[in-house]
Amino acid sequence: MYRVSPFVRHFAVALLAGAGVATLWVNLSPSSYYDAIEWRLIEVGLPLWMAPFPLGVTPVGLVSDGLMALFMFFVGKELWEAVWLKRGALSGRRGGLPLGAMIGGWVGAVGVWLLAGALFETALEATPSAGWPVPIGSDVVLGYLVGRVIFGAGHPALHLLLLITIANDIAGLVVVGLVYPVAGLRLSWLVLSAVAVAVAWVGFGRLAGRDRPERDHRRAFALWPYVATGALCWAGVVLAGLPGALGLLPMIAVIPHADRAFGLFAEAEEFLHDPLNRLAHLLVRPVIVVLFLFGLTRGGIDLRAFAPTTITVLAALWLGKPLGVMLGAALAARLMGFALPAGVRLRELLIVALISGMGFTVPVLALETALPGGGMAEAARLGLAISLLAAGLGFGLARLLPLR
Description:
Elements: H1 7-28, H2 30-37, E1 42-44, E2 55-57, H3 59-84, H4 96-120, H5 140-151, H6 156-179, H7 190-203, H8 214-221, H9 224-239, H10 275-298, H11 308-336, H12 346-355, H13 361-370, H14 374-387, H15 390-400
Antiparallel strand pairs: 1-2
């Protein structure tokens, strides 16, 4: 089996380090912490036809809507290759059971969130079904850190875990952006993104074919056109009212890429020199810094914020999502005849389901828009931090059930 590159472990360490510093800061001096992350760096007045409000740039907004787009591009590239390329983990019938597990996890998490919220929520600012997209997301980097210890670097169950958590993160952001837009949806601005992507494909991406002359090949393999496309694509997504973290995803498909996938975050990809992999390699170190800054600006956990919303979060992630993953996989196998990936048995799938109940990075990103009121958001953030203890359940189950 292929081995996963060690840089994903560095991502997890950076995220935890940033969140650790933020947690100490917010509990020792909360006023200075919030003043720092919400400090207005610059305010730009835009015409009403571009945005209905002045653009205020703060550290937390710069990281969440700007720099996190680099991380989402990085993981989105892996999901796209898994779906589209030869031997990708989701190509053909390979994707049947993982897709069923992912959809089941989404349904289970949202269903339990709605039920728990109706039973336990007491916040005055709460509205019916408030925040239901929050538990859709998982945590790619922290889930990887746990999965690698349990399964090992080359185990196919680790690759299934990465696939499910990446898809959960992207789906969670898309749903939050559509259901809880920051200032209303203005989807016509997506035309800007579409035009930028089309120009990149026609002018550069399509010239990468092996039957093209060397001049076209060099033109297609230059990186600057895709960097420019990314800037325009991001602007279109932000002006459309969607989360800026999604801004670079539409351009992935038009960047020249390898003919086959070696696996999610595979070490072998470090020797590929197509533009898509080159961009990913260049982003490794910046993304480490981005995840530290994300943990610093979004990961501050108020240890006194426990509330019914915390219970709702834990119920959705620890109960709804694992049950949904298992049920979705069972239905995909029973009704559609899909099989588990080679080397993955029911016990490995159960551990994957438990680890997918760890929700931090993208669910934290969704809090500010999906939940009303600072109190509810902080209680939910505490619940997301506690959800990381699902790692202990995974370790315990792995000791009880011997793995291959």
